Amino acid sequence: MVRLTYVLRPSRIRRIRKHVVCYVAILCFIITRCHRPASTNRSNIPSNFIEAISLNCDPIINNTVDIVKYEYWKFNYQYYEDELYSSKNICETIHNRFYFEKRPLSREEERFPLAFGYLVYKDLVQVLLQFSIFYQPQNAYCICIDDFASKAFKKFIMKLPQCFNNVHTMIGQYSNWGTFGILDNVYQCFKYLTLRKHNWKYYQYLSGSDLPIRTNLEMVRIMKALNGSINTDVEEFDLDRYRTMEGIHPPVPLFKSAMSVAMPRAAANYIVRSTKVRRLLKYLSHTWIPDESFWTSVGGNAALLRVPGSFRARDIIWLRKHMKMDPQWWRTVSSVGSSYIARYQVWEFQKQCYGEFRTWSCIFGILDIPEIITRPELVVHKFSLDIQPAGYMCLLKEIRYRSHNPIEFDAVSYSEMPTVELHNGKRITELTHPEWLLQSSFYK
User: What is the average pLDDT score of the chain?
Assistant: First the structure.
């Protein structure tokens, strides 16, 4: 039997080694991108900050193992709240416990500042954690404190401008759910930010139970894709909300919307100076749940108000009634599937909530996180440190990590949203995705 032996030349061996090294490098890159190694502090935040708390969020974010056990994780935020309220130097204590960016994270974000208006009344630690993850030094912030809040809470929040030169605080009306006080409090911050000499491009409203789904950089790219259009929800106005104003014509036709909105600066400049908008506010003050009637009544009457970035909401209502198409049920960054992306919220009549329903709205839990982080909306409503706090902390940690380690993000799908295309001059019969109009956030 003859045994054949094949001898590789040195040059051939070097070429094989080179290919093997390249293959291994590519494989390692793919593995590290698709499944990040477990860590309790992937953003390398110093341990004195609350968000650096020991909590391995990778199983939750990657949805790789049974994560039900995280439902029982507890967070003693009362310790930090006591520390804050008893502090003699609140700025020092805040900056020792909460991580705030000291400079813009990119040139793109620096050139496209945003504005945020808050309405808060309780949960000091949660409010400061939320503020810290939304905070960027180039942005503008206004925090309105509902007069319902405790004296200690008001006193503390009112001192925040001493710690941040881009933050304004005010005490608003005492309000109950469904009353005009909520809208008035939100509008006062919106008006302040609009009249302020600051070059912000888009405004967003936030409640004390919101968290971001997108990083500040991703929000900037989404706002650029909106191209000056108003992003607000569209629903028919409920007749029972007229209350004592039934039979009295409003200044413009009324539409129902969600409280959250993405409003371009040009539109804001028009709204706060409009006599007709002031008349609309006065009219809504006598109606029920006026905070869900303002933004689309202003932004959805293009022929009557001429607000920059506005559209004809009645055309959308007409299309829903007459178009024979099925709505797109999935929502992702690459296929938005909707024309409203300001806020993600789940109502009790819509789908399962893995946290807890309160006042018909889902307070999200751990098992909701894997879906939430893939959704296209800007923020999610609601999270609470009282309900499965690991969900709150892990979403915060994930956004911080992505802020410091940006992933490839293309906002082209947002430019295909129907209201954006209508603003850009397309007719309703020429829309790329007319089926994206078929559902509002109140769908049943």
Answer: 90
Q: How far is Cα of residue 277 from the mean position of the Cα atoms in its chain?
A: 26
Strands 262-264 and 255-256: unpaired
- Measure Cα distances from 203 to 106, 141, 410 in Å: 20, 10, 21
> Which tokens sit at 315?
């055309």
Q: Is 60 exceeded by the pLDDT of residue 243? A: yes
Residue 299's H or E segment, with its range, is helix 295-299
Closest CA to 254 of 281, 273, 228, 274: 281
Q: What are the structural domain ranges in the chain?
A: 43-73+311-444
Task: Tell whether the model's pLDDT for residue 118 goes beyond 60.
Answer: yes
Sign of CA dihedral 177, 346, 408, 265: negative
Q: What residue spans of 215-274 are helical by DSSP H?
A: 216-226, 265-271
Strands 343-344 and 262-264: unpaired
Gyration radius of the chain's alpha carbons? 25
CA 368 to chain centre: 16
**Distance set, CA 93 to CA 48, 82, 120, 151 (Å):** 11, 11, 20, 19
How far is the C-alpha of 179 from the C-alpha of 316, rounded, in Å?
A: 28
What is the C-alpha to C-alpha distance for residues 119 and 174, in angstroms, rounded to an integer? 12
Spatial distance between the Cα atoms of 59 and 119, rounded to a whole number of angstroms: 33
Per DSSP, the three-state class of 118 is strand
Would you state the structure tokens that stand for residue 184, as one six-digit string? Answer: 């008035």
DSSP annotation of 309 reads T
Q: How far apart are CA 397 and CA 220, in angstroms?
A: 20
Name the percent of the chain lying above pLDDT 90: 81
- Residue 56, pLDDT above cutoff 50: yes
Q: pLDDT tens for residues 198-216?
A: 999 999 999 999 999 999 9
425: left (phi over 0), alpha (psi -120 to 50) or beta: left
Q: Where are the beta strands (DSSP E) in 137-290?
A: 140-145, 167-171, 202-207, 210-212, 235-236, 255-256, 262-264
Q: How far is the C-alpha of 67 from the C-alpha of 58, rounded, in Å?
A: 10
